[in-house]
Amino acid sequence: MDTRKIFVLPVFTLFLFCISFSPNSLAGMAEAEQWLQSEFKDSTLTKDEQRKEMAWFIDAAKPFKGMTIRVVSERIDTHWYEANTLTKAFSDITGIKVVHEITGEDDVVKKISTQMELEHNIYDAYINDSDLIGTHYRSGKVVAISDFIKEEGKEVTLPTLDLDDFIGLSFTTGPDGKLYQLPDQQFANLYWYRHDWFSRADLQAKFKQIYGYELNVPQNWSAYEDIAEFFTVHVKELDGNKVYGHMDYGKKDPSLGWRFSDAWLSMAGAGDKGIPNGLPVDEWGIRVDGCVPVGASVSRGGALNGPAAVYSIRKFVEWLGQYAPPNSTAMNFSQAGALPGQGNIAQQIFWYTAFTAALTDPKLSVTNSDGTPKWRMAPSPRGPYWEKGMKLGYQDAGSWTFLTSTPIERRKAAWLYAQFLVSKTVSLQKMLVGLTPIRNSDINSKKMTEVAHKYGGLIEFYRSSARVAWTPTGTNVPDYPSLADLWWKNIALAANKELTPQKAMDKMAGEMDERLQNVADKGQERCVPKLNEARDPEYWLSQPGAPKAKLANEKPKGRTLSYEDSLKAWD
């Protein structure tokens, strides 16, 4: 074979391609071609379509060439990839330099809150969880992207951005119908379990003998609890190692708050029906009248200290103490995340799919030598208060957010960087690295079909219609930064047995109402909280929907499905 022809052909093709564009496009096309042939080989676009996207970026970026912009995001694999690889690609191709800072999620919230309060530009853009959509919509300090792309940002908006291809826009849209954030990455919390253990005939027979039904994917919390007890109390050891039927964490730490604000109460069924967040009562237990928050406590029509919420916290405390490793109560999110990979955890009801890539390492005991997992992920089991039509779990949607305090030219340059990171040229490769999908076209691509077997059900989940039942915090929460810390500070009191679950939630609900009133007193532009008058809780508990009266039986018979049937159930 004449290797000279292999080299000459792409160069000649590039030459023919480039002469069809303006001289401005030629400057960075050589750099772009190198990236297309190396890092961005996998894309739902053809190579010529990728070249056209890159040529557009080169032209659009010319007024900002040499500028240095600053952005910040939380610490996950996808954002490390952006900071370490995609910033260089963007700079090589456009001439715009990027300082992409990685920090903790709580620190991102502090930074964006500080800039909003001071109205002084610190960062030119934030990849900030869509959990703050209620805050962003009400503040008047966040740029409505849907307005920006039609007005001052029109000339720097990618023609092939294709907003309809994004799977998470409902999470980042305000009550006014405007788009305030653009998803950059998404991951859900799902049920995780050791498929190899659940498939063993001896364990299946033993489980059925004890509990009277099949050892399979739990469909309700009763089955989850039975399975947790089975592995911890009855199995005890496998392959010479102590095993546990449950994994969680309970350290008094801000990360404990994510565990609950990230929709634990919705899994039990504490809120109302309605996607994405339940109306009028959402998964935080906050009731709204229209778009106006009117209370979180049951006495004001909320559900934060109602029977379903208290049940959910009681189960968290019981399972943590009875079925998880003894040291888990002293762990935070990061410490607990690695534990299932060590091979002694049978299942986890609340497992972030952001850990998928980390648990496919062939060196781990939970992974086969070819990199395929011994584990699977499946839809989360439902608590006894859950009803069809409710959200079932949490989905993180780290999203591009732009503040009005950022000068327009810097905002435009940062918008170009944001679009580069979510462009169809880049997004499929980014999904392969971080496994945090944002585009339908990537999820349904031939490439993802080829590699789906490596990821234990992740691709099947995102291809199912069920993914809409996993949603971030919504617009009922009027000021996420000022309310979020109540979760970890109060749940820790229950986790560490300082207060009963009921007393901890009563305390939290009262404090949430006080904070809502503080938000009202500060003043916002839209949908300002206005608390209902407190009244006998029985009034609200007797009304349809949330808050829901206590069930006579909070542990119905356990139900399970085979893995294959659980996948079908997603649709």
List the helices and strands and how they pair.
Elements: H1 3-18, H2 23-37, H3 47-61, E1 68-74, H4 77-94, E2 97-103, H5 105-118, E3 125-129, H6 133-139, H7 145-148, E4 182-194, H8 195-198, H9 201-211, E5 217-218, H10 221-235, E6 237-238, E7 241-242, H11 254-261, H12 264-268, E8 287-289, E9 292-295, H13 307-323, H14 333-337, E10 347-352, E11 375-378, E12 395-401, H15 408-422, H16 424-434, H17 440-443, H18 446-451, H19 458-463, H20 480-483, H21 485-495, H22 501-522, H23 537-541, E13 560-561, H24 563-569
Helix pairs in contact: 2-3, 2-4, 4-16, 11-21, 21-22
Give the overall silhouette: globular
Question: How many domains make up the coordinates?
Answer: 2
CATH class of the largest domain: Alpha Beta
Return Rg in Å: 25 Å
What does the main sheet amount to? 7 strands, mixed
Number of helices: 24
CATH topology of the largest domain: D-Maltodextrin-Binding Protein, domain 2
Beta-strand share of residues: 5-15%
Name the CATH architecture of the largest domain: 3-Layer(aba) Sandwich
Total strand count, please? 13
Distance between the termini: 50 Å
The parts where pLDDT drops under 50 for at least 5 residues are 1-9, 11-21
What helical percentage do the residues reach? 40-55%
Task: Write structural notes for this entry.
The chain is of the alpha+beta class. It folds into two domains: 3-180 and 395-466, D-Maltodextrin-Binding Protein, domain 2, CATH 3.40.190; 194-394 and 470-571, Periplasmic binding protein-like II (D-Maltodextrin-Binding Protein, domain 2). The protein contains 24 helices and 13 strands. The strands form four sheets. Strands 1, 2, 3, 4, 10, 11 and 12 form a seven-stranded mixed sheet that branches. α4 (77-94) links the parallel β1 (68-74) and β2. The longest helix has 22 residues, at 501-522. It is globular, with a radius of gyration of 25 Å. Residues 1-9 and 11-21 have low confidence and may be disordered.
